[in-house]
Write a structure and sequence with these properties.
binds pyrazine-2-carboxylic acid; 8 strands; two-stranded antiparallel sheet; binds zinc ion; six-stranded parallel β-sheet; Rossmann fold; alpha/beta
């Protein structure tokens, strides 16, 4: 479905970081394939924000913190937490944006998951589902009327960012071919069902005029 991009549309580019790309600590298959698409898309948007997964060493989402195996889950104060390999440690090369990501018109970088005891897949709200990151306020003050989301990974940080943008009241579009998924235990199918349920539209980069 064609969408004409206007001056009040925001693009949120989620976690296009070395650790989520091939060779990284939590590599998403083909993750770096989103980079050229995003580089081409971003200049059309007046409002562009990047999110950056940004964890302290010993973060609650790290399997190593708990002496557990990666890709298992534990219960923590705010609910179930998937345990990941150590990734996107603050200041590390893995936490840096992919070197080919070239989005000079990005105006905001939102770092998330910085609290030792709370994860944050969403760019808007931490995993306790109450602590706001400030991104919604930023986008509102910029006059955002619709939110377009792309990046990594479709079924975790892109998904939760899209859910929360919809909860904040914006029409939300996920640019599917500018995303790649982890797909852990059926998470991608569940994500697509949730997009449908919440009225979040899946579009392709070529749908944008
Ligand atoms: C992500 C798992 C852990 C993501 C971040 O960016 O999708 N996934 N931290
Ligand atoms: Zn993370």
């Amino acid at each position: 479905m064609r969408q004409v991009v206007g001056g009040r549309d925001a693009l949120v580019v989620v976690d296009v970081q070395n650790d989520f790309c091939p060779g990284g600590a939590l590599a998403v298959a083909d993750g770096d394939a989103v980079v050229p698409l995003i580089n081409a898309l971003a200049p059309r948007f007046a409002i562009v924000a990047l999110t950056q997964d940004w964890h302290p060493a010993g973060h609650i989402s790290f399997a190593s913190t708990h002496g557990r195996a990666p890709f298992t889950s534990i219960d923590v104060a705010y609910g179930s937490q998937v345990l990941w390999p150590d990734h996107c440690v603050q200041g590390s090369v893995g936490a840096q944006f992919h070197p080919a990501l070239d989005v000079p018109n990005a105006q905001a970088v939102l770092r998330k998951g910085h609290q030792p005891g709370i994860d944050s897949y969403s760019g808007f709200r931490e995993a306790d589902r109450t602590t706001a990151t400030g991104l919604a306020g930023y986008l509102k003050e910029r006059g955002t009327q619709r939110v377009f989301v792309c990046g990594l990974a479709t079924d975790f940080c892109v998904a939760w960012t899209a859910f929360d943008a919809a909860d904040a009241g914006w029409p939300v579009f996920v640019i599917e071919d500018a995303c790649r998924a982890i797909d852990l235990n059926g998470s991608l199918d569940r994500t697509f069902a949730e997009f449908d349920r919440r009225g979040i539209q899946r579009i392709r980069a070529s749908d944008l005029d």
